[in-house]
Design goal:
The chain is α+β, with helices and mostly antiparallel strands. It has 10 helices and 10 strands. The strands form 3 sheets. It has a 6-stranded mixed sheet with strand order 1-5-6-4-2-3, with helices on one face. A two-stranded antiparallel sheet has the order 7-8. About 50% of the residues are buried.
Amino acid sequence: MQPQSQHGFRPVFCTIVPPHVLDKLSQSDNPDLAGPARRTLESDAARRTRRQMATVVTVPVVPAAGGKASDKPDRTLYDCRHHTRLPGTKVRAEGQEPTKDASVNRAYAGLGATFELLLKAYGRRSIDGNGLPLIGSVHYDEKYNNAFFDGEQMVFGDGDGEIFLDFTVAIDVIAHELTHGLTQYTANLSYYGQSGALNESMSDVFGSLVKQYSLGQSADRADWLIGAGLLAPGVQGKALRSMKAPGTAYDDDVLGKDPQPASMEDYIHTGEDNGGVHLNSGIPNRAFYLLATALGGNAWERAGQLWFDVLTGGRLAVDADFASFARLTVAAARSRFGEGDEAEAVLKAWSEVGVPTA
């Protein structure tokens, strides 16, 4: 099945903090913790419903002069000033000097870093391949404990200061959410069950790759954490997720223990969170980590290239499961590198997490 074209997108509402984390937090006896979490859940549910009901109208992107998309990003940042009306007040355009607002500057830099990885590593101009402008809004709502991509733009909350800090502090969170746009414009993976978990995993993969690229880190030096630095100092945890060891990112009295499975043996069957998209994404996440570290060097080069090839190659069905995605990565490895170390490493990585490739 071919991915849907630019005129057939079904944009989804994707958040970095999973509903199960906010739900656990909303049950706290401390109103300073439960209140913001509950309001965030309600806000997310309302916006998700509006997204599902909205009629999608695609506005063609006009290439730069000369008929070719620019090799430079086109970023615009807005300030919601703690309201929920998007995009907010324009505060920084492409090429303008940094503002006095650190959140604006971090979001601007994160959007640029994602654009740069896509261009320099994969020759893709923005998330749509045609120079799509990148829009971000900061200071969304009051103590909003999330960041999201709504099919059109990025939005960042400030966090409650007790559990979550400002959502622009982690560059991989910015890149994660923007990668949902990349997926939307390519394979357009359905946001439910295993295809939804693959959608989430793609965002974690490229979010981590953007962080590694920006830091100049090889696969063996990367932390493979998603959202490191996002949890407040008093929280017992390192990040939202660990690609290296799913299920170990946090273990906190208020948040509970990270529930992500690391292999198909522990796959979670649930109707919540669109069939566990933020949970079971740990399985393909770990497969990618195993592949990248087995190959060594820079993860965005060989391992990342294979994932990018599959995402953009036109053969990934919108309702793909883990096994069909895994088979395509094996085929991509053989097509690009032949019957060598890369193909063998891909087979071994999927085998270790229990996903069949035959």
